Structure formats: structure tokens, C-alpha cells
């Protein structure tokens, strides 16, 4: 049986680059996106190469849809690889604060809470099908988290919102890797490349510094070839995340904030 990968955010940018190449490597690709037409287009492109692909539509700004997506994929019983790639960038310069469908600051919700919720719903399947892999697409841009103002009500900036969510993603990666040690499921985080030429970067107004090919090649290697766990990669190189991402007190505060958010959503 070939490996099966759920690739979130597979219909544009880095995800669209990865989808056909993962298929060419022999994986069945579960193409996720929030636009049904773009999901269908990407599935068709992958299948046109003779590879296997199926489409899944979900808006990861909704934790209920994260749960639904996880349940649908888990029901297949064959998942071995999860790539948490979908995300929200800086937004336009001077952009206003945005909220998710559950009322959380949007970048915190999509870039951090959604990968956690989706991964939790798929861990049972990944462990049952071990060896398995989880790759979290992060960023070298990371800022300390103000746990007293997770909603950034005290002053909003899209760049800061993005960077603190990416710090949370890295810290959670290392915490999860420790929890899964010995299970056969490895977990790593990658900064693919700086300011790739994607729609997300163009919207931010920042100049591009690297290509999607560069970031894609590094990410593809991590997905296919790296068996170690708990690492942070800057492109193809093993590197170090922000110091806060390794601090036990940050892990503990992040766990508490995450449980509060996810449990509150499930009670509502």
C-alpha cells in the first residue's frame, strides 16, 4: 500500500507546487482547499499524470470544519502523512484585525489552532499506520507570544499576528514530537524559503526573495526523506527556531491557551 498524504492548502502557492510532485513520488494525494473549483482543478491536474488524488473542501478558519475534515480523512483509514501547509499571511499593509468564524484572531486561528485541531483528529490514524510523518509549514519570522492578549485587542498588526502564530506552531511541533517519541510518527517544522513568489507574499506588499521552487524542494525533501523528529528546518538545513519555542514554560502556557480555545469551541 502506498503512502497517503493530506496536504492542506494544496490549491495555490507552495501546496500546488507540492501536490503533483508528491504524487510523482508515488503518494496518494488528498488535496485540501476551501474553494471547491480550485480543489477540483488541482485533483484533475494530479490525476492527469496518472497518479491518485482525492479532493476535500474545508474552511480552516472554522474549528468545526477542521473537525469534519479530520473525521472524513480518518474514516479512510489509510493516512500516513499530514502536511499542515494552509495558512494566512501578513495581509495587506495596514490591514485591520480579522476574526475567524469562531471569533478568534484570524492568523492565530488558521496558522496555529487549525493545524492543532486537524492533527489531533488524525493522530489515531497516523499512529495506527506508523511509520508516519507530520510536517508543519512554519516561518523564520517568529515573535514572542503575549498570552494575556492572544486576540491582539490591545493593538493589531498583521505581521506580528502572523509571526506569533508561527512561533506557536514551532513550539507545538517540539512539544508534540516529545509526546509522540517512540510511536513511529515523526513531527518536524520547516521555514521553506523567505518571501516566496506566492499570492500571500504579493498581497503583503513585501518584495519576493526566493522562488516557490526553492521552498518546495526543501519541503518535499522533509516530507519524503527525513526520519528524525522534533526538528526545525530553514530550507534544507536543520536550524533553530526562536528561543521561546524550546521553553517548557511557553509549552505549558500554549497548552493551556489551546485547550481553552478548543474546548470552548466544542462546548458552543
Note down, in words, how this protein is organized.
The radius of gyration is 17 Å and the shape is globular. It is built from 8 helices and 8 strands, in the order E-H-E-H-E-H-E-H-E-H-E-H-H-E-E-H. Strand 2 (28-33), helix 2 and strand 3 form a beta-alpha-beta unit. Helix content is 46%, strand content 15%. The protein has one domain: NAD(P)-binding Rossmann-like Domain (Rossmann fold, 3-Layer(aba) Sandwich), CATH 3.40.50. The termini are far apart. The chain is an alpha/beta fold.
In short:
This protein is of the alpha/beta class. 46% of the residues lie in helices and 15% in strands. It has one domain: NAD(P)-binding Rossmann-like Domain (Rossmann fold, 3-Layer(aba) Sandwich), CATH 3.40.50.720.
Placed side by side, the strands forming the largest sheet appear as 3-2-1-4-5-6-7-8
Strand tally: 8
Structural class: alpha/beta
Strand content: 5-15%
CATH class: Alpha Beta
CATH homologous superfamily title: NAD(P)-binding Rossmann-like Domain
Radius of gyration: 17 Å
Largest sheet: 8 strands, mixed
Mean pLDDT level: 91
Instruction: Supply the CATH architecture.
Output: 3-Layer(aba) Sandwich
Fill in the keyword field for this structure.
Rossmann fold; eight-stranded mixed β-sheet; globular; alpha/beta; 268 residues
Amino acid at each position: 500500500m502506498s503512502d497517503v498524504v493530506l496536504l492542506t492548502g494544496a490549491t495555490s502557492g507552495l501546496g500546488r507546487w507540492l501536490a503533483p510532485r508528491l504524487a510523482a513520488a508515488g503518494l496518494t494525494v488528498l488535496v485540501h482547499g476551501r474553494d471547491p473549483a480550485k480543489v477540483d482543478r488541482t485533483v484533475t491536474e494530479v490525476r492527469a499524470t496518472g497518479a491518485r488524488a482525492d479532493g476535500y473542501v474545508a474552511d480552516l478558519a472554522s474549528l468545526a470544519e477542521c473537525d469534519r475534515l479530520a473525521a472524513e480523512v480518518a474514516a479512510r483509514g489509510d493516512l500516513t502523512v499530514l502536511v499542515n501547509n494552509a495558512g494566512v499571511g501578513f495581509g495587506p499593509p495596514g490591514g485591520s484585525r480579522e476574526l475567524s468564524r469562531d471569533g478568534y484572531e484570524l492568523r492565530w486561528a488558521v496558522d496555529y489552532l487549525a493545524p492543532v485541531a486537524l492533527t489531533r483528529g488524525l493522530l489515531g490514524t497516523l499512529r495506527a499506520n506508523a511509520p508516519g510523518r507530520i510536517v508543519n509549514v512554519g516561518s523564520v519570522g517568529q515573535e514572542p507570544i503575549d498570552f494575556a492578549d492572544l486576540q491582539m485587542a490591545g493593538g493589531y498588526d498583521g505581521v506580528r499576528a502572523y509571526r506569533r502564530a508561527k512561533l506557536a506552531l514551532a513550539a507545538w511541533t517540539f512539544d508534540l514530537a516529545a509526546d509522540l517519541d517512540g510511536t513511529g510518527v515523526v513531527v518536524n517544522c520547516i521555514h521553506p524559503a523567505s518571501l516566496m513568489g506566492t499570492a500571500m507574499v504579493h498581497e503583503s506588499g513585501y518584495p519576493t526573495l526566493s522562488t516557490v521552487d526553492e521552498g518546495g524542494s526543501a519541503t518535499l525533501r522533509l516530507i519524503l526523506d527525513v526520519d528524525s523528529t522534533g526538528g526545525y528546518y530553514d530550507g534544507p538545513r536543520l536550524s533553530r527556531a526562536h528561543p521561546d519555542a524550546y521553553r517548557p514554560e511557553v509549552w505549558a502556557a500554549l497548552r493551556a491557551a489551546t485547550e481553552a480555545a478548543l474546548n470552548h469551541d466544542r462546548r458552543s
